[in-house]
Automatic annotation (TrEMBL), chain A:
Domain NADH:quinone oxidoreductase/Mrp antiporter transmembrane: 150-448
Organism from which the protein derives: freshwater metagenome
Region (Disordered): 475-498
GO cellular component terms, semicolon-separated: membrane
InterPro entries xrefs: NADHpl_OxRdtase_5_subgr (IPR018393), ND/Mrp_TM (IPR001750), NU5C-like (IPR003945), Proton_antipo_N (IPR001516)
Keywords attached to this entry: Membrane, Transmembrane, Transmembrane helix
Span of domain NADH-Ubiquinone oxidoreductase (complex I) chain 5 N-terminal: 84-134
Listed name of the protein: Unannotated protein
Main localization (coarse): membrane
One GO term of the biological process aspect: electron transport coupled proton transport
Keyword Transmembrane helix on entry: yes
Membrane-protein topology: Multi-pass membrane protein
Automatic annotation (TrEMBL), chain B:
Compartments, record wording: Membrane
Name of protein: Unannotated protein
Keywords, sorted A to Z: Membrane, Transmembrane, Transmembrane helix
Record NCBIfam families: NDH_I_M (TIGR01972), PRK05846.1-4 (NF004500)
Domain NADH:quinone oxidoreductase/Mrp antiporter transmembrane: 129-421
Membrane association type: Multi-pass membrane protein
Family: Belongs to the complex I subunit 4 family.
Source organism (scientific name): freshwater metagenome
CC per GO annotation: membrane
Predominant subcellular localization, coarse grouping: membrane
InterPro entries with a match to the protein in the record: NADH_Q_OxRdtase_chainM/4, NADH_UbQ_OxRdtase, ND/Mrp_TM
GO molecular function ontology, one term from the record: NADH dehydrogenase activity
Residues passing through the membrane, by range: 6-24, 31-54, 74-100, 134-153, 165-187, 214-236, 248-271, 277-299, 306-331, 337-355, 375-398, 410-430, 455-472
GO biological process, one term: ATP synthesis coupled electron transport
Amino acid sequence: MLLASETAAASGWFLAHAWLIPVIPAVAFFLIIFFGKRLPRGGSEIGIAAMLASLVIASGTAYQWIHLVGSTEHADAVSKTVTWFEIGSLKVGIGSRIDGLAMMLLFLVAFISTLVQIYSTEYVRGDRRYTHFFASLTLFSAGMLTMVLAPNMVQLILGWEIMGLCSFMLIGHWWEERANSEAALKAFWTVRVGDMGLLVGTGVLLALFGNLDISEINTKAAEFSGNHALLAFAAVALFIACIGKSGQFPLHTWLPDAMAGPTPVSSLLHSSTMVVAGVFLVARLYPVFHTGLDINIVGHHFNLIAIIGGITVLIAAGLAFVQNDIKKVLAYSTVSQLGYMMMGLGVGAWMPAVFHIFTHAFFKCCLFLCAGSVAHTGSHHSFDMKKDMGGLRKKMPITFGTWMISTAALCGVPFFSGFFSKDEIIDSAKGNDYKVFFVVGLIGAFMTTAYMTRATYLTFFGKARGGAAHFVGEHEDHSHEEAHDEGHDKADAHGHDDHHAPVVHGKPLSFAPDDSPWQITVPLMILGALALVAGYLNAAPFKIEKFHEWLHSSIGVEVPEAPKFEWLNAVPSILLVAAGFAVSLLICKAVFGEGNSPLKGLTQRNALLGAGHKFLVNKYYLDTLYEKVIVRSIAHPISAAAYWTNQHILDGIVNGVGKGGKKTGELVYKYIDQGLVDGVVNGSGTTATHAGGALQPVQSGKVNLYGALLFGAAAVGALVLVLVNS
Amino acid sequence: MIEFPILTMLVLVPVIGSVLVALISKRYPDLVKVTALVTSVLTAGMSIWLLAAFKTNNADFQFASQHEWIKAWGISWHLGVDGISIFLVVLTGVLFPLVIVGIDPHHDHKRYLSWMLLLEAGVMGSFISLDLFLFFVFFEIVLVPMYFLIGGWGYDNRVYAATKFFLFTMIGSAFMLVGIIATAVLAKADNGHVTFDLIKIAENASFAASTGRWLFFAFAIAFAVKVPLFPLHTWLPDAHTQAPTGGSVILAGVLLKMGTYGLLRFGVFLFPEAAVWARPLFLTLAVAGIIWGAIAATMQTDLKRLVAYSSVAHLGFIVLGTFALTATAITGGVMQMVNHGISTGALFILVGMIYDRRHTREISKLRGLQKVAPIFAAVFTVVMLSSIGVPGLNGFVGEFMVLIGSFGTARWWVVVATTGVILAALYLLWAYQRVFHGEPDEDNKSFAELKWKEGMLLLPFIGLIVFCGLYPKPMIDRIQPSVDKLLQHVSQHSDFKVPAPAEPVISNGGEG
């Protein structure tokens, strides 16, 4: 493999060696697999060291990129590729291509992965597959990093698939239990359905542009003037892949099930890797989507990306209301936020959408890790908010504090990071004349606040229940003990994080003696702090545009200027957030609080509300549609019919000829045996019957004879053919 | 000085080995094994040497050797390899010693090994013959040992399967024999004398369109059975399921490739006009096979049968690439022939190991094997992923090239075929989940971990899976010139316009 290019050399060491960022964790994966078990810390030290090394290089890369942007008028992507294989004149390379978008995600992935790995050392301590866990986690990060760096579609697919595979291993980490193993399969398949789009889309791009290089594709797509329908086809195909990977409607159903994996996996999966990959793909090939799907064309108020994103925002937020499992609330919240990102890309708000990837990663990762911290320490490894949580705020101050900051960021409370990104998306939807999606964004903001208030109330406020009561030491009678055991058993059956002894191993920080050990709380505090401040990289109200400055060259196509920020425009969303909080708090107090309220049990009493509740609990019956209707029909009637056809019709013709002609066959057979009939002459007429008859096991063994007959027939046939044609 | 007749030796050495093994008395079982091993390793060594000496970027037949055989009929001993066949030759050479040394037939070693070596000679000969008659002889020789291997060392229903295999292939061959004789006779007008020489006929003969099409079909049926192309595939699952592990490995690894190879060499090359004309039919059957094989595999309860149906689907991709008639697609198809041989061969070995331990291949009776045999599970995972076509392993490159390359000339077929990629993940991972995940029950608790010897057998497969996946360049460099030449031949002899290759990539990728 010879070096094909060296454009990066002049720009700085880190930019030229960015390829090391995914390579280090990839190598670490093998080291952990082969040597991890023999190491004192079971391989986790290799994983953390590798992620730290990646983080250092990613930081250096980010620094040098920012420097480059500052020093030149128009900073182009810095590429370095080596040829992987060539097909004629089509060279497929692997390497690195650094631009603003790649730089940002490289840093983000390396950073979050490092924290998650530190967190995991405590969280999965004593796990039966501790070493494997760290190996998969490391490879998973390597996959995402490979994809982010990709200079061409092939490497992108490579990273994309590695991630898909690792998600299978990680979600199904506790595969002894069926539910986990099935959730892993479901995730893999659903994403795989989308992968079909990725392959087809890549094929179309190659056919259109004769090239798989991302820079080339983007340049050519931006000034495209060829067959527009074909480009639209490519964009739709690629977007299907994004729907699968980023859990957009209607393929979002795998994401909540994926909660069967250990919590660190969920947090990694849902913050900076895997589900972000779909959004990343749209952002990476934005000119293809922008041109192909007519985004920002005057008079077009809808396009596929915005519609799917918008629907996802709302339906996922709706589902988050009826979950009892804290991780599932967060999972649907992720789906909904990914909807925001897609919607942003769909309305031409590239920068806010990408900025939302950035801010979302910190607070969502933090929220998941908080949930894990609660389960690890506070609720006896249960994630059931109604059964085993409540009233935890005093005992777990760090977890509670970081949770509150992250929740505020997620809800878009002013001056927290989520506000700056989410509000920009909503603002841009209005500014770019996508009024419907402006409204969707506002409603989404209201719903987000409402369901997060509910989750917060159930987890940290009110009366401690089940496992939490046990932890807080509030249980006044023994019924709780029982309830706790029950809850625990139930959690077992559902296969949540319950596989380690319910003893806290690590050392908690001195100022929060009852909270989780430091390996858990330190990452929480770092992430919490970032959830607070990360937004100030691109804070429109304060005229800070650093993020924009570093990344804008990655858009690759002309998009409308972001509307000028005015506090007046932000008022509706701020009001709705406040309203969401107030309404939800009131209802929560009434429904889950101590007092007697007419709202309690309303869904049981009111038929309409009950039906709505049931509809939500059943996830709009989408899973039923997929599993009971589509998959079952493929797995059962269709494949059964296919197999039946196979055995009875296709094979049956052969066997049938045999059975039908068996008698004749036997007769002829007898004659031949007795040497009375001239085999060759007779044989050419009865070949077919022989062929069938011989399939009866009784008559086998005379293959040579049949062979002779067949060749006799062949000779005659050849003669006929020659005569006819000459 | 006469050049060392390496191709002739590739055929002769296994034949000699086979005869020797047959002659050695049963009283010396070790001598039998050593003889078989030595001859097969010798053949493997020669095939590897052949690869090393093979000239890259050369489209012609190399190491060609031609000797008159039956002069009156224009039949000659004409051998040669080019980019399309070289890797099949090497795969054959490498696979046989692995099977011979690594897989125990459990009884009657002498006859087993003798048939094995004869099989190797036949397969090898088929891949290097450049004479129609010679090719036919080798193509047919293969049947006999395979029939006895399945019938003699297979499982319960082996006789039925063996007979079915034999008759299916034989009927196809009968058509081909018709085609061969007719081709030679009809080409006389253009050649001036009767000849069975492939290259002479392909270059000189000018069949009338209808004649060419008849002849093409006579050949194509034989190959379609061998591939097997939907709907002629029904012999394959039976043959695979009933064959002994070694037989299955050879069957999937190289025998099926005789069909796809034949379609390229004796279909597309010999009758370009007819092949172009028949494209829609073959593309449709290929895609039908991909989907059909995958769906049928999904519902198998027998692990080995599942792998057999997955072969039907994979071979569909190869045929799709062949008839897409672009350089990328055909090159991808040829690579897929080799890669499928490696990964499916390894899968059959693994399934064989499961059977040896548990005496069942029923998926429902296996559970939780990952817990008791993690290394075995890891190896199985790698092989399975290669079969699924995960990037970085060998299955990906060929499949990807077929899909990408076919898009220009067979767009809608490709779109449908892509579902096959998803389904492959579906049935294989599902099977994996059922067999390896979960808590092992009493029967599965004693499942033995991978043994040292088994590991050594699988190591070369894993090595090839990783190497070909990570670094496919050497393969492509050797295959593609011959494919380009073939396509040039096709466009000269038919009105098919081979799409211009993709415009060159600016290799540095960046603009800076």
